[in-house]
Write the structure tokens for this entry.
Amino acid sequence: MGEGQGASWLARVVVTLKPVVNDPQGLAVTDGLHNLGYAGVESTRVGKYIEVRLRAADEATARAQVDEMCRRLLSNPVIESYRFDLTPGDA
């Protein structure tokens, strides 16, 4: 796959439960915030934040690799959605 070749990239990946999936952890956070006096909080959803540093020949290749990583390991596509930002690794 050419890892170790090309420019360095940093992917910031956010994985969240799909809206139709119950989020018990999010409900617990909402309750906790209400107990702390934040009555205006309507709801919360809890997810994961992952940083991946990689080398790739170009941005398109890096994006394709990160997308594949998300689909194959970093998220469960049945119940989770993901998004990511990609920036040069030395930025």
